[in-house]
Amino acid sequence: MSKSDHIEIDLAVVVKTVVKQKVIFLSMVMISVLIAVVASFTVTKKYRSEITLSLNSSSFNNSGAKKLSGIASLVGIGGVSQSDDSTIFIAKLKSRFMKREFIESHSLLPLLYKDIWDEAQKTWRNDTVPKMWDAVRLFDKEVLNIRTDKETGLLNLSIEWNDAEIAKQWADAYVVLVNRTLKKEFDDEVDKNLEFLKEQLASTTNSSVRNSLNSLIEEELKKAMLSNGSAEFAFKTLDPAVIPSRPYSPRKVIFVLVGLILGMILGTGLAMYIDKRDTQ
C-alpha cells in the first residue's frame, strides 16, 4: 500500500469520526469562536491616523554648498561639508533623536507606561522611572510608523493609539516638530555660512574671489528668506491626518477566523480521543 493510500485512509477515518462525534466537534468550534469574539471586544482598541508627505524640494538645493566648498578651497580653507539634504531630512524624520524630542516635548512617558504611573499621585509606582531610550524603542515599535514608497518617493507617517483624536493630534504634531527642528538647523547653518563668507570677504582683495563671495552671500540671504516663507520647511503634507472613525485593531474577523480554525483542530482531536475511548 502506498503512502498516499495511507493518507487517504487516515483522512477518511478522521472525517468519519468527526461526523460520528459531530456534537463534540461542533461544540468545540462554537466555544472557540465564542471565546474569540469575546476576546476581540476585550482587547484594547487602537486607532490609526495617517499623513502622506512629500519632500519640499525648494529646501534642499545643494548648489550653494558646492560653490561654498569651492570658495573655501580657493581661499585655503577646507572642511565645508556637502551632503544630500533629502537623505538627511528623511533620516531625521525617522531618527531616535526626533522621537525622543517628541516624547519629551509632549510628556508622553506616563501615557506610554500607564501600568507603572500613578495618575492620582503624579508619580511612578515603586520609583520605577522608565529609561528614555526604552520609551523611544516602545514608541517606534508600537506607536509611530514611517514608510517610503519606492516608486513615488512619497512618505506615509502613521500614529497608532487607543484614542482616535490623540492619534490625529500626534501625527500632526510630529510633522510640525520635524519641520521646525530642520528649519532651525537650516537657519543656523545659513547664519554660520554668512559669517564665514563675510569673514573671507573682509580678508581678501582678490576681485574674482570677492565677486564669488558676494554672489554666495546673496544666495544665502535668498535661502534665509525662502525658509521663512513656509511652515512646511522640509516636508509638505499632501494628504492630512484625520480622526479615524473606526479602530485599526483588533480586527474581529481575524479573531473569529483564528477561533474557528483552533476550534476545528481541538474539536477534531477531542472527537478522535472520545471515539477511541468509547471503542476500547
At a glance:
This protein has helices at 3-20, 22-42, 63-74, 85-94, 96-105, 109-112, 132-142, 164-203, 207-227, 252-279, and strands at residues 47-55, 117-118, 123-124, 144-148, 155-161, 235-239.
Task: Supply database-style keywords.
10 helices, 280 residues, four-stranded antiparallel sheet, elongated, alpha+beta
Mean pLDDT, all residues:
82
The main sheet comes to: 4 strands, antiparallel
- By DSSP (H or I, 4+ residues per run), the number of helices equals 10
Shape annotation: elongated
Task: Tell me the radius of gyration.
Answer: 31 Å
Strands of the widest sheet, in order across it, are 4-5-1-6
Number of beta-strand segments = 6
Report, as a whole number of angstroms, the end-to-end distance: 27 Å
List low-pLDDT spans. 62-68, 74-82
Strand content: 5-15%
Structural class: alpha+beta
Order of helices and strands: HHEHHHHEEHEEHHEH
**Helix fraction by DSSP (H/I, runs of at least 4):** 55-70%
Mind explaining what this structure looks like?
With 280 residues, the protein is an alpha+beta fold. Helix content is 62%, strand content 11%. The chain has ten helices and six strands. The protein has a four-stranded antiparallel sheet with strand order 4-5-1-6. A two-stranded antiparallel ribbon has the order 2-3. Helix 2 runs antiparallel to helix 10, helix 5 crosses helix 7 and helix 8 runs antiparallel to helix 9. The longest helix has 40 residues. The two termini are 27 Å apart. About 6% of the residues have low confidence.
